[in-house]
Sequence to fold (308 residues):
Amino acid sequence: MTDFTLRNVPLLSRIGADRADVLRTDVDAAIAGWPDALLLRVDRRNQVLISNGRVVLTSAVKYADHPDEHAVFLGRMPDGRHVWGVRAALEAPEDPTAETELLDLRRAGTVFDDVSAQLVSTATALLNWHDHARFSPVDGSPTKAIKSGWGRINPSNGQEEFPRIDPAIICLVHDGHDRAVLARQTVWPERLFSLLAGFVEAGESFEACVVREINEEVGLSVTDVRYLGSQPWPFPRSLMVGFHAIGDPEQEFSFNDGEIAEAGWFTRAEVRDALENGDWSSDSASRLLLPGSISIAREIIESWAALD
Fold:
């Protein structure tokens, strides 16, 4: 079986709210919705409050009379209300009986509904970008937010900057039959394995990046590179683009860039067993622990393992 597709939409790629991008430039219309708007608070550690599988959204007007320069417009809820995000201390829901939990996106993706997953991933990405884009890369002048948080401008020369995204590939290398490559980075604990990944370089296509990164990391020459899907990964601002490719199990591994501590060819049966034992957070004694479901890596691995 040399080809397959993802069985499910990756968790952070789910769509649950209207991004309403037209309101980013129609600032008056965006601000006009503030009195009825909801507010998503993200703290300095990128944590949010959740309750019953949904992120806690509070009243925007209780935060401020109008959106300040640090607020970012996230879109519209299914009922039409606007949603904004801010970097601020977390606030409990108005219902005093509601049970809440403090989580970040890495740990909450599996319990979030579609709306929450979209809002939190967007807010996290935007707020992280603003935290690191307060000065112009051209002349170092202070910049200010524009377009409801979807851009920044240098007032001295009019230069505009937009949210930065760092694309990275992630690839399952398999032999076209029932074996796939899993690897452990040098900074990971023993038994924690995942797919091979790396950032796209300037002037490089995604497919070329797959071939280069896999050769650099484990020394394999891969062919038949095929796209699977993508997922935002706002840690701090990546976009993971998933692929699978064919490799030769007879070719020896060579760890050329120092990022990989070990790699191996695992059978589909071994991968299925590892999936049944949970993920990296599991206390299982399995020799193979795999990524959690928040990552597109998990969805790719599960989709390949499900093949007959």
